[in-house]
Write a structure and sequence with these properties.
The protein has 355 residues and is mainly alpha-helical. The protein contains 18 helices and four strands. It folds into two domains: 272 residues, Hypothetical protein af1432 (Orthogonal Bundle), CATH 1.10.3210.10; 55 residues, Orthogonal Bundle (Arc Repressor Mutant, subunit A), CATH 1.10.10.10. 62% of the residues lie in helices and 5% in strands.
């Protein structure tokens, strides 16, 4: 790292480094790639991995309770120890790696204590973990509300969305590593300050690291673009989930910013108000899919209509389709998931988290 620039904040002037040597950046990437996990989270994963009665879904949920555990498992699944191709889902990674392998991965991870001294590295890691899990929870609800089919990939992108902040913290100090408690700054203002003072931002740095881990491009793109004003799909969902989590934590987030983010996902003001009110109260009760959904977006929409007790004509009117097209979609649903009638189709889809 060489050179320095001067930046003023709040009446004081501070020196900022303007360059980061390749070795320092690589060292920062390596440090975050082997992030310590919360001790309690690791214990729970080890316990489930050892119990023959544990399901893959239970083990995946335990892994997703800690960003460091998710990082380790996703790296293993995408770097020669998992299935062929890219794995974007913790559920897929758990299925591919087996409980024994997951247990071995967890056993090697260093841990920190949630009751560590304030201001210590434990405090920094726990603040990152809590915010990551909070955004994942918000993203899970948004995935249902905005009918995003890639719910499992969305969960991983949400957990990793701020990983670039940890890298910046390693390189430039804790001021740039914090993910919550932004004071008077809104999240987007924080991003602009990073660009102004460092010449780079945490979203871009995080995406570089996610690509280095070998994860699918869709997750890296969601991390990179979750603050972008024209974000779509997974990136837009992660961006709004981040704002919802900051709002719940008491950070300043303007109503206009929330409305704009909601509009990108087709969520109106009433839906947004409901989400902001309900989000901190109870965890999401709807499971995400433990396996990829084989249905198209239109097939899922038609199946949701059946789940709501609607007849073909009502579904067709809501979706602006003909009755025959709705009938075709639903026959395709029955064939794809092995259902004999509408009741069984709805039960199967709900059990697997597809609707």
């Amino acid at each position: 790292m060489s050179g320095a620039t001067t930046a003023a904040r709040g009446g004081r002037t501070t020196a900022r480094p303007t360059g980061v040597g390749g070795r320092r950046l690589a060292a920062a990437f390596d440090a975050i790639s082997s992030l310590p996990a919360l001790a309690e989270a690791r214990v729970r994963v080890l316990t489930l991995a050892e119990q023959q009665s544990s399901s893959a879904s239970e083990l995946a949920e335990a892994v997703e309770a800690d960003a460091a555990l998710t990082i380790a498992v996703m790296q293993a699944a995408n770097n020669g120890h998992g299935p062929r191709g890219r794995t974007g889902s913790v559920h897929e990674a758990v299925d591919a790696l087996s409980p024994v392998r997951i247990g071995a991965i967890a056993a090697r991870i260093n841990t920190y204590d949630v009751l560590g001294a304030p201001g210590s590295s434990s405090d920094r890691f726990e603040r990152f973990r809590r915010h990551a899990v909070a955004v994942r929870t918000a993203a899970d609800r948004l995935g249902e509300l905005a009918r995003i089919p890639e719910r499992d990939e969305l969960a991983v992108a949400a957990l990793f969305h701020d990983v670039g902040r940890l890298v910046l913290g390693e390189l430039y100090g804790s001021e740039f590593g914090a993910g919550v408690g932004l004071g008077d700054e809104e999240p987007d203002e924080r991003l602009r300050r990073e660009r102004r003072e460092l010449g780079i931002d945490h979203a871009l740095v995080g995406a570089v690291l996610v690509r280095r881990w070998g994860l699918p491009a869709s997750i890296a793109t969601a991390v990179e673009r979750h603050h972008a004003p024209d974000a779509e799909g997974l990136a837009a969902a992660v961006g709004l989930a981040d704002l919802v989590a900051h709002h719940a934590a008491g950070d300043r987030v303007s109503g206009d910013v929330l409305r704009e983010a909601g509009t990108r996902l087709g969520i109106d003001e009433e839906g947004l108000r409901q989400l902001l009110f309900e989000y901190p109260l109870t965890p999401s009760s709807r499971p995400r899919a433990a396996e990829p959904c084989p249905l198209s977006v239109r097939e899922v929409d038609a199946l949701r209509g059946l789940a709501d007790g609607k007849v073909y004509k009502q579904i067709a009117q809501e979706l602006s389709l003909s009755v025959s097209t709705v009938r075709t979609h639903l026959h395709n649903v029955y064939k794809k998931i092995g259902a004999v009638d509408r009741a069984q189709a709805v039960l199967i889809a709900r059990d697997r988290g597809w609707i």
